[in-house]
């Protein structure tokens, strides 16, 4: 059955891209929940992650080390960004803070041009990328890596937020910042932690997608915006809802591209965004209470 | 009391703007064509930024999709004049009407919501419109662009030279500036500023917040569309890359650099952006010879961040400090963008 | 009050916060030209009641009628448009404007300028602006702070900011002004000034409803009042009647929290 294999193929690539969106979207939700900021520089963390790991591989580092190092470096970039921009302007209005993240994302893109130029580059696949046949569909191991890593990371983060002291502290800041402060939790530190964690996860997303679709200075913008769409469609206030939104967007895009036209896949996702904003602004999968946890 | 007593609270004098524009209008007498082309470009942006400044500073909303209105104006004018052979002035009106309608359609649902949903909705909308410009090839010419847009005419006079277009665009800027300042210095402006002063009290004195935010959004869409229409006639060739999400972001940068608390910020911001862009194009390749693409964005990104952190009211207050020696008291600014005491994450308690 | 004309009627207003009944079935009516007070110890439900009347909080059940029109479920700006304005316990002046602009903003609903006529600055707009500015100045004179007209509002002393709020509430010629704890934070001299302003405006026919726990002011200026405790109305009548009401005396002198209100006076 040819259509079945085609559907399976599309579903598979939708899950892959959905996994990438999910990783970036989760970072987005963490920052939004802890600080209230819509971080428009989120996609740029993925861009840095991809390009830095490529450079490290070119410097003859083993791939796994390059990836880990690039995640660490991007987490540090995230920390610097939080301390110099967000923290310095923390008393400004939310509008100001959001526009600051837009400025940072543009500056990051510019820095990337200065370092890596405008040519797209690529990272070798994590493992031998010989296609695997699965129920008439052809699967690439790198795509499996993407989906698998995303699931592992997302589960690890659930664990972190629900079962570790630091994670619970972060959650507490969201539920009740005042009470959290009384309990000795420092919201400033939590803001830093939130940005560092989401930068690191974003970097991982970048290294995972680099072998699939390459990496260039401007890859972050679309990734970031799509993750954004995913988070809003699923539910901006709630990580599992955002993840569900990410996979939904990924699958919808894959099917639009495969069955209709690649030029229209953006239109379909953004139309869905507008529709959600107008009809169900709290998101498709968010709990009715709308609590930001 | 009479008209003059209003001067005690609002500086509505036409003297300042008239002197500024009189001086500006003398430039063609001495400037080169290059200077005129630069100034004309500033004029296009200034017209957009006047509306966007009101939206950001007075209605407190972020739009990340104004390039779409710019494009709607441009493509409407192109299609109606080049393809349908209609009057360019009619085309400008139709473009403005479509933009206003679209702004209403996006604004009505989003302004009901709290927070920054306009930013998200306009971002999505901007990308949809951009894709439409690219994909609707039979109307827009797709990625290849739209060629042969005729010059704009008035009573048989064709605006083809840089000089004539310079006067045309800046006349529009002048009108938009006075129009917007009049709005700010009125019941509507007080209503909008009251939202920043105390939202709960604004509500209690009967200000319908959503209505005014929406009206300002529509006005800014109209200004932007008119600017886009004029641009199409000026350059005679347009393509979708003029109207990307990046363009929207650059417009926002101009508005912030100039300062959103003063309508003159629109002109200062667009001038700074265009002039700095030209400078960078000339000097950066000297230091980084192999650089390509839009390398200048790094400067604009940093400029945006530094402005917001260290000069949240933009450049205009800095100019006013200098001008203060000549002028009396200036209007106090709305606090949309001044650093306030609201703690980061103040929204968390929603 | 020979000719009693009903202006506001509160009917069985109730507010439940997740199982806790904050306001329980409270009813009363106010006549035109009255100074009417709602008093009660801290936490008695006064503020909740006030917020329901002003549309800040939706009521769980019950209705508010103003001149026969239902206010329940109207938004605050619609209530203002109906002719009911208010002041705030924790001052809410527009701190980004001058004093006179604050008062002019209060006239928002009485003005006709729309965005188009404003942009074109038609002669009618200028006329309306001049008229409103004059009226604003008059209102500032009425409350006695006209000398600050062109200062920024946040530079005013606390007591004057409260007077400014009253001027802002009065400029639109409302039928009813609601005052939320108007005496809170004022010193004796400022309180006296405020009482004077309220009485003067009442003499011109204005109606006031205020919530307050400063007993002394309430008793000295209000025509009638209701007393709420634990969300329930425990008394209604003239100040003299209230003094004699055993339930009220018990509520006010019965526990420590209540005493605070009296001591505060």
UniProtKB/TrEMBL annotation, chain A:
GO BP, one annotated term: amino acid transport
Q: Name one Pfam family in it.
A: BPD_transp_2
Name the domain of life.
Bacteria
Question: Transmembrane residues, as ranges?
Answer: 6-30, 37-57, 63-81, 93-116, 144-162, 192-215, 227-252, 258-279
Q: Which GO terms describe its molecular function?
A: transmembrane transporter activity
Where mainly found?
membrane
The membrane topology term of the UniProt record is: Multi-pass membrane protein
- GO CC entries: plasma membrane
Give the UniProt family note: Belongs to the binding-protein-dependent transport system permease family. LivHM subfamily.
Name assigned to this protein: ABC transporter permease
Q: Which organism is it from?
A: Lysinibacillus xylanilyticus
Automatic annotation (TrEMBL), chain B:
InterPro entries (alphabetical): ABC_transp_permease (IPR001851), LivM-like (IPR043428)
Keywords from the named record? Cell membrane, Membrane, Transmembrane, Transmembrane helix
Q: Where are the transmembrane segments?
A: 12-30, 36-55, 62-82, 88-108, 115-133, 165-184, 216-237, 249-275, 287-311
Principal place of residence? membrane
Q: Which domain of life is it from?
A: Bacteria
Picking any one GO molecular function of the record gives: branched-chain amino acid transmembrane transporter activity
For this entry, the protein name equals Branched-chain amino acid ABC transporter permease
Look up the record and report any one GO term of the cellular component aspect.
Answer: plasma membrane
TrEMBL record, chain C:
> Which SMART domains does the record cross-reference, listed alphabetically?
AAA
| Keyword annotations from UniProtKB, A to Z | ATP-binding, Nucleotide-binding, Transport
Entry keyword ATP-binding: yes
Domain ABC transporter residue range list: 8-255
Q: Could you tell me which Pfam families the record lists for this protein? A: ABC_tran, BCA_ABC_TP_C
InterPro entries according to UniProt? AAA+_ATPase, ABC_AA/LPS_Transport, ABC_transporter-like_ATP-bd, BCA_ABC_TP_C, P-loop_NTPase
Superkingdom field: Bacteria
What is the name listed in the Swiss-Prot or TrEMBL entry for this protein? Leucine/isoleucine/valine transporter ATP-binding subunit
**GO cellular component assignments:** plasma membrane
Is Repeat given among the entry's keywords? no
GO terms of molecular function: ATP binding; ATP hydrolysis activity; L-isoleucine transmembrane transporter activity; L-phenylalanine transmembrane transporter activity; L-valine transmembrane transporter activity
UniProt xrefs under SUPFAM superfamilies? P-loop containing nucleoside triphosphate hydrolases
Q: Which GO terms describe its biological process?
A: D-alanine transmembrane transport; L-alanine transport; L-isoleucine import across plasma membrane; L-valine import across plasma membrane
